[in-house]
Design goal:
The protein is mainly α. The protein is built from 12 helices and no strands. The longest helix has 44 residues.
Length: 304
């Protein structure tokens, strides 16, 4: 298992480090990284998700167990984040940041690992897991922000989901799958070619977004939130999944994605919705650094 882990992790971590180095040396214009993030989020990654979800055999997957396990663990992770409020005297803005740090995930890192470690089947299952996690996480995060007085609008929530390219692409892939249409001639190879650009450029953009200077911000909160996200949440999936009928490769992929560091887009959501953006930047960076050590351990234990 050591060599496959190295083959998967060295390129992923190397691309993140490469992107961070390019950003610090200002070799590319700052606007490049913003455009790169948009290109990955709206084009490359959706293409990858459509290909993955359109090709998986849904009839063979324990979807009820998958949705139940992920849903319950996301709620448990949110509850653990709320439990940090009295411990660290978190104001509400910091609490919303702790919730994002505890349950959101960087799907680009997941796709970078799922393919090399578990092949085409693992990549297809990764698309299914993302399709389950994205709407649930968005529902929880929007509801938490609403507790701060912004109000929860069912219509606004539906509109937000409808504009999410990751969710839309998953729905499109599932629809093609269930209808038995598959990817049309010519369209399939085009989407595959676009999807191949998601991981490399996306991981470089992740590295460019990391802010090492922010690491000194509220170290105790960073450590507690990181422990929830990188250790407690995947452990709960590993323990609860088999009780609900989840096993084998679907369980392994679910654990992998729940063990990922929080998404770099969490900072944007924190800034736009009244969260603690500096703390979010710190948590995002510290979780990615800590994941270098935690992810190989989690994957090795689950794979065994």
């Amino acid at each position: 298992m050591i060599l496959p882990l190295l083959d998967a992790f060295v390129p992923a971590i190397g691309l993140i480090a490469f992107g961070h180095g390019l950003k610090r040396r200002a070799w590319l214009a700052p606007a490049f990284w913003t455009d790169a993030e948009r290109l990955v989020f709206y084009v490359f990654l959706p293409a990858l998700l459509v290909v993955a979800t359109a090709s998986v055999d849904l009839a063979r997957l324990p979807m009820a167990a998958l949705v139940g396990t992920i849903g319950l663990v996301l709620l448990a992770g949110t509850a653990l984040a709320f439990a940090l409020r009295p411990v660290f005297a978190l104001e509400f803005a910091a609490l919303t940041t702790a919730v994002q740090g505890a349950i959101r995930f960087n799907n680009l890192v997941g796709f970078a690992l799922a393919g090399p470690l578990f092949g085409a089947e693992g990549l297809a299952l990764a698309g299914v897991v993302v399709g389950v996690m994205v709407p649930l996480i968005n529902l929880i995060c929007v509801a938490v922000f609403a507790l701060g007085g912004r109000g929860f609008s069912p219509r606004g929530f539906v509109v937000q989901l409808a504009k999410n390219p990751l969710l839309v692409s998953c729905v499109a892939g599932f629809a093609l799958n269930l209808l038995g249409i598959g990817l049309p001639v010519g369209i399939g190879p085009t989407l595959r070619a676009l999807g191949q650009g998601a991981v490399a450029l996306g991981l470089m953009a992740v590295g460019a977004a990391l802010t090492v200077e922010a690491l000194s911000t509220r170290l105790g909160v960073q450590a507690a939130v990181g422990a929830i996200k990188l250790l407690a949440v995947p452990l709960m999936v590993w323990l609860l999944g088999p009780l609900l009928g989840l096993s084998g490769l679907p369980l392994t992929i679910a654990v992998l994605f729940m063990a990922l560091p929080t998404a770099s887009s969490s900072y944007i959501m924190a800034r736009q919705m009244g969260g603690d953006a500096p703390l979010m930047a710190a948590i995002t960076t510290s979780e990615h650094l800590a994941a270098v050590a935690s992810l190989p351990v989690v994957i090795a234990l689950v794979a065994r």
